[in-house]
């Protein structure tokens, strides 16, 4: 290595090398001197021929324009662009002949630098090698009538055989720096506005055809194909190299660019532009992999304003195809295709995870209806994802008419219904088990990009569902539901509901369901047919309980969800139930062969045409039960026919009467009642709450150890069996007033005595009963054949008039007296 370096050092110090180095230095100095002489000569030539050169430039330009070309000043740039002759024009303006009408200057430049071929110039010809435009404004204007200030350039004359060999003036290179370019097409409502920081191009000619690579660095102020809808890529930086070629035969420019930067994203673009007279067709195809928000922000405002309400978390592969006519009004044809794989789609109604589909946007859904929002559509194919943890499969979904969007398609889903708990954000229902399967054809409006009034035709099957309906505190297990949505009605089939020891089989129908559900839920009538082998009525009173209130946030108040809308419908709709039960238990009452029509209206339970058998007899009734605070208010109109009175009273806890219990009485009770009252949350009658009218009679009856009669008997009839009284007539006409009862007519015809009572009986304080008791022994009255005969002898003999009152010790006291005294 050291010997090599020594050899090189000796070579540079040799006489031979110094000799040739000296000659090369003289050669370089000669070239510089020659260059200076040539440049000086060009400067002298320009100064001597300045007027003639400028005149030739003006003549050459004015020969090719219909307008006015103005130069404020010009000078020669020494050595710049050598060996070309560089001429700098200052304050250049180019106007068309109609500038006074539209006031748009085609070109206004602080400096235009033209580099002329020296050899051509020495032969008195102008051949522009390169044009540089610095600090300029270019405004290409096209009026509504089709006139353009760019038409300033005269058409070229066809060459004749005599001058075919003459060379045309060509421009080989063009550079733009700090140029503001505007293309304002009023005819087609298009506006292209660019702040060009730099544009460089070198043109290669092949006869009349040419090709160039254009480097462009610009800021997009407007790229509006329709000024009504706004600009594409507004305020985005565009930077890249375009391969541009022109075919004179096709009169068309083709453009290809790869990795073009628009903002921070890269795009591949293929485009064409027709230049033939009367043919201004163009096409632009754009491909990229991009984030949804970035892609949306590249589009025009009318599109991005809608797309920005959506989002995809991962980049998507997108291809956009734009075709149109620069001379045509309105939008060009736009088709956007995107492939989405394993992504998360945010929509105004929620988030769809594990999302896969192919999406297509077109603004020409029906080919004959033009390019506009009303004829635009979004089509999704092979859609799969999870909405609120619910798996969805949609073979095809179409959203038509983006002015009034309408979505149609088919959806299928199969899942464990515990997943529904995530949809119910106000937690009004909680599922703990079950499986659901749905296959539906759907249609829904989209208002402000929210799903509105979804309508379905198809089937939903739910098996073995267990849930807790929180507002009514209802628990259910092993519930099966089969829903059939049709055009005219919702058919509810084969519902099996299990709650504690109760099993209910339900079928139902809701006419005009799809319309009433959204527009008038208060007019919706749900018709149920219910069969119960065995039911405990008390367990279902909770269904009528006042719903638990849920705090409404500003968000839920502004935007109702599917969940809380469903809850509103449940609260507002009316329910009519035709019920049949083999056995019904209520407290100690057991009823069989029960039938009734039940209406549930605004939390009220209305029972019509009720009929049941109990206690050896039958009851028919019409009733209403509704929540009242923590209790239930009821009203009833009932007819009781020959029930066992002891069993019946025991079933209803003796209606709160404490002065005797059911074991004190025997017989068959018939009664008619029109009463109101209250039942507590446990299903127990609230003592002393009843109001209304009651008439009754007991046949084949007996009073056993009835304290008021025993006391009277011991006082008035010490030798009669008052502890075991049989009677042929026990009847009354009562008015219930809560704690007190107005006894209008109470009659006992018995084996011991006859008794008539009238006045007030109180469950607390306030008893004041007037008792009329004939002293004669009525033991043998039963042997009389007719009631008339018994009535004729009823009041013979001595008659006692007694008053039953409350004593100071709380026990009933008997004294002499009549009611009016």
From TrEMBL:
InterPro entries: AsmA-related
Keywords from the UniProt entry: Membrane, Transmembrane, Transmembrane helix
Protein's name according to its UniProt entry: AsmA family protein
Transmembrane domains' residue ranges: 24-46
């Amino acid at each position: 290595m050291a010997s090599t370096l020594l050899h090189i050092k000796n070579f540079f110090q040799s006489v031979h090398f110094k000799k040739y180095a000296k000659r090369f230095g003289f050669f370089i100095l000669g070239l510089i001197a020659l260059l200076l002489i040539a440049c000086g000569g060009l400067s002298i030539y320009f100064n001597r021929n300045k007027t003639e050169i400028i005149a030739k430039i003006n003549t050459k330009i004015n020969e090719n324009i219909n307008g006015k070309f103005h130069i404020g000043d010009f000078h020669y740039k020494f050595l710049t662009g050598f060996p070309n002759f560089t001429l700098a024009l200052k304050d250049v303006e180019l106007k068309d002949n109609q500038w006074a009408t539209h006031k748009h200057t085609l070109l206004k430049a602080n400096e235009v630098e033209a580099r002329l071929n020296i050899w051509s110039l020495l032969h008195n010809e102008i051949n522009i090698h390169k044009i540089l435009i610095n600090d300029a404004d270019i405004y290409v204007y096209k009026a509504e009538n089709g006139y353009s200030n760019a038409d300033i350039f005269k058409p070229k004359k066809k060459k004749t055989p005599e001058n075919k060999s003459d060379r045309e003036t060509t421009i080989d290179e063009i550079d733009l720096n700090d140029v503001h370019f505007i293309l304002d097409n009023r005819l087609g409502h298009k506006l292209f506005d660019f702040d060009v920081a730099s544009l460089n191009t070198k043109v290669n000619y092949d006869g009349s055809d040419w090709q160039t690579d254009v480097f462009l660095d610009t800021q997009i102020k407007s790229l509006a194909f329709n000024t009504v809808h706004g600009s594409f890529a507004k305020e985005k930086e565009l930077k890249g190299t375009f391969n541009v070629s022109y075919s004179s035969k096709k009169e068309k420019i083709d453009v290809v660019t790869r990795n073009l930067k628009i903002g921070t994203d890269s795009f591949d673009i293929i485009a064409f532009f027709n230049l033939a007279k009367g043919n201004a067709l163009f096409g632009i195809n754009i491909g990229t992999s991009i984030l949804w928000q970035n892609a949306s922000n590249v589009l025009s405002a009318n599109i991005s304003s809608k797309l920005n309400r959506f989002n995809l978390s991962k980049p998507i592969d997108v291809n956009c195809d734009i075709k149109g006519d620069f001379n045509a009004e309105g939008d060009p044809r736009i088709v956007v295709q995107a492939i989405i794989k394993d992504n998360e789609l945010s929509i105004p109604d929620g988030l769809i995870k594990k999302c896969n589909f192919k999406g297509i946007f077109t603004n020409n859904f029906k080919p004959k209806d033009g390019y506009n929002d009303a004829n635009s559509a979004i089509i999704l194919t092979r859609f799969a994802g999870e909405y609120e943890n619910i798996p969805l499969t949609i073979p095809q979904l179409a959203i038509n008419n983006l002015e009034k969007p309408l979505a149609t398609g088919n959806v299928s889903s199969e899942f464990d219904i515990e997943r529904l708990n995530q949809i119910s954000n106000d937690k009004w229902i909680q599922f703990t088990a079950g499986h659901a399967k749905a296959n539906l054809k759907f249609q829904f409006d989209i208002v402000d990009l929210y799903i509105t009034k979804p309508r379905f035709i198809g089937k939903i099957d739910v098996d073995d569902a267990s849930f807790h309906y929180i507002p009514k505190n209802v628990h259910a297990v092993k519930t099966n539901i089969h829903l059939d949505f049709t055009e005219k009605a919702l058919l509810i089939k084969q519902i099996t509901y299990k709650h504690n020891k109760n099993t209910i089989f339900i079928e139902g129908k809701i006419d005009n369901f799809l319309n009433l559900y959204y527009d008038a839920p208060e007019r919706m009538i749900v018709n149920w047919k219910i069969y119960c082998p065995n039911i405990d009525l008390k367990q279902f009173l909770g269904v009528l309980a006042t719903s638990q209130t849920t705090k409404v946030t500003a968000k839920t108040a502004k935007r109702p969800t599917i969940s809380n809308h469903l809850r509103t419908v449940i609260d507002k709709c009316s329910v009519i139930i035709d019920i049949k039960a083999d056995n019904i238990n209520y407290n100690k009452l057991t009823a069989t062969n029960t039938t009734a029509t039940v209406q549930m209206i605004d939390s009220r339970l209305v029972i019509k045409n009720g009929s049941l058998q109990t206690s050896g007899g039958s009851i028919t009734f019409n009733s209403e039960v509704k929540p009242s605070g923590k209790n239930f208010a009821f009203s009833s109109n009932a007819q009781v026919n020959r029930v066992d009175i002891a069993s019946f009273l025991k079933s209803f806890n003796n209606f709160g009467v404490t002065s005797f219990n059911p074991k004190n009485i025997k017989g068959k009770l018939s009664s008619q009642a029109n009463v109101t009252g209250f039942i507590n949350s446990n299903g127990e009658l609230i003592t002393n709450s009843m109001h209304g009218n009651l008439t009754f009679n007991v046949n084949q009856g007996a009073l056993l150890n009835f304290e008021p009669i025993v006391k009277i008997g011991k006082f008035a009839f010490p030798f009669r069996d008052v502890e075991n009284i049989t009677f042929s007539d026990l009847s009354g006409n009562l008015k219930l007033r809560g704690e007190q009862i107005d006894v209008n007519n109470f009659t006992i015809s018995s084996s011991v005595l006859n008794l008539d009572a009238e006045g007030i009986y109180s469950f607390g304080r306030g008893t004041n009963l007037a008792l009329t008791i004939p002293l004669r022994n009525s033991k043998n009255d039963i042997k009389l054949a007719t009631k008339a005969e018994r009535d004729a002898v009823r009041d013979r003999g001595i008659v006692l008039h007694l008053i039953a009152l409350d004593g100071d010790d709380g026990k009933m006291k008997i004294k002499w007296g009549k009611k009016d005294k």
